[in-house]
Structure formats: structure tokens, C-alpha cells
Amino acid sequence: MADEITNDDNEKRANSRKVREGIAVSTKMDKTVVVAVVDRVRHRRYQKTMQRTKRLYAHDETNDVREGDRVRVAETRRLSKNKRWRIVEVLERAR
Fold first, then answer.
1. Whole-model pTM?
2. Which pairing describes strands 32-42 and 49-59: parallel, antiparallel, or unpaired?
3. What are the structural domains, with CATH classification, of the chain?
4. CA dist., res. 68 & res. 41, Å (int)
5. Is 82 helix (H, G, I), strand (E, B) or coil?
6. Distance from first CA to last CA of the chain, Å, rounded?
7. What is the pLDDT along the chain (95 residues), one digit of tens a residue?
8. What is the C-alpha separation between 70 and 23, in angstroms, rounded?
């Protein structure tokens, strides 16, 4: 019974990590990529759709991401002062 509870907890925790898609805007750092994530939200009062851009610092162990690539990033433990995301996969290469 204790093993079942532990398994459920691990599965829940693994799925609770946030996943985002964005465009790599800077690859000048070693093993770090800056990813711009665009989020579309509706204004509370005026109901107008707005675009909000967040710049996330993501860990790229192999340094294979280039500027302009569409990437998927996942939330992870704190890796440096600003870096809290890691590259999961490259969805589309820049042309």
C-alpha cells in the first residue's frame, strides 16, 4: 500500500511541471538559451486580446539550439540565478 502511494505522488509531481513553447531569441551564452514565450490573454475589463511576451532562460546541455528555432521548454529546479527551465525538444528549425 505504501508503494502505491509513493508511485502516485511521483506521477503527480512529474506531470505538474509547466511546459511552454517559444522562439529562441538569444544563444550567446554557453549552455543557455533565451526563449521568448508569447501568451495571449484577454483584458479583464475591455475583453481585448493582448499578447504578453516572457523571456525565459533555458538550459541547453548540447548547445544545439540556434536563434529563431521553435522550442519546447519544461520547468525544472533552479539551475542559476535566472535559469529555471530546460530545453525538451526543438520543434522547428530556423530557416
1. 0.80
2. antiparallel
3. 18-92 (2.40.50.140)
4. 23
5. coil
6. 53
7. 555 555 555 556 656 899 999 999 999 999 999 999 999 999 999 999 999 999 999 999 999 999 999 999 999 999 999 999 999 999 999 88
8. 5
